[in-house]
Amino acid sequence: MVEKQHTIKQSVSISGTGLHTGQHGTLTFHPAEVNHGIKFRRIDVEGQPIVEAKVANVVDTSRGTTIAQNGVKVYTVEHIMASLRGSGIDNVLIDLNCEEPPILDGSAKIMMNALKEAGVVEQDAERKYLKINKKITYTHPKVGCELTIEPADKFSIDVKVDYKSGVLNVQEAHLHDMSEFEENFAPCRTFVFFQELEMLLKHNLIKGGDLSNAIVFIEKQVSEADLKRVAKLFNKESVAVHEGGILNNVTLYFENEPARHKLLDIVGDLSLLGMPVQGKVTAYKPGHFANTEFVKMIVKEMGI
Ligand SMILES: [Zn+2]
Q: Is 203 inside any structural domain?
């Protein structure tokens, strides 16, 4: 069966706060013609420059995947990319009026719902797939991560994370078919470790967090004073540690929500290939640096 390319029926906007910059911004998805692909447009910059969502434009992966073209940046694109792939959308122009898209609830769910409301429509052109014809492996010995893609009839991902942490140890997640994405992966939120959070807060690198857009894991015993300090930074009366080392008012949607979110991130980063990929992905300890290096390797090996 020949699959067709898809776009959205009408424009749709979402507003919110960026996680790292704390800037309030609006994302607007517009329909786009066939073979347009996914492109961002910074409407707050003179000339409204375009930043294409492709791996060659990745400039930073330290706190999410950041892309840039001619010096114009778009931060943290991975959840947007995952929501588009999860919705089966090939062509869309995304207007953004600041550097960093809103983090929303830290998942892809809100964007997928908005795209669904806008309406996903078929276009009069065949969808191109990148069919993997050989095994490609990326490893980073220092970090101990490994990502592999090999030929298969359809796209699937197996993820394993291992943080060697008391609260978040070995977890796995499996996507056998993209039809499982919306329900089982899109709602899964990003997560951080308390120690990491403290560092980010101290260096003023996380301004849009409010305890509802990230799962916070606490590995060690944390003093009351530290909890109070964090509560203050988040503008909360108080925060507490729940069972399983999870901070405050989030309840996990799935026991392995962190591993599922890592899978969501891989779907987003792989979308920087510029077309859906057909192959079986296996990932051990993935992260944005490893994911995007892996995507660059696929581009090189497959000659695209
Ligand atoms: Zn993520």
A: yes
167: in domain: no
Last residue in a domain, options 84, 104, 128: 128
Instruction: List the catalytic residues.
Output: 288
Domain of 235 in residue numbering reads as 191-247
In a domain, 145, yes or no: no
Residue recorded with tokens 């796995």 = 172
Q: What is the pLDDT of residues 154-184, one digit of tens each?
A: 999 999 999 877 778 799 999 999 999 999 9
Q: Residue 151: how many CA atoms within 13 Å on its side-chain side?
A: 3
- Looking at the structure of the chain, the number of domains it has is 2
- For 199, residues 6+ apart whose C-beta sits below 8 A from its C-beta are none
175: nearest Cα among 250, 259, 276:
259
The answer to pTM > 0.90 is yes
- 199 and 114 in a common domain: no
**Is 19 in contact with 208 (CB distance < 8 Å)?**
yes
Q: How far is the CA of 77 from the centre of ligand 1 (A)?
A: 9
CA of 130 relative to ligand 1 center, distance in Å:
24
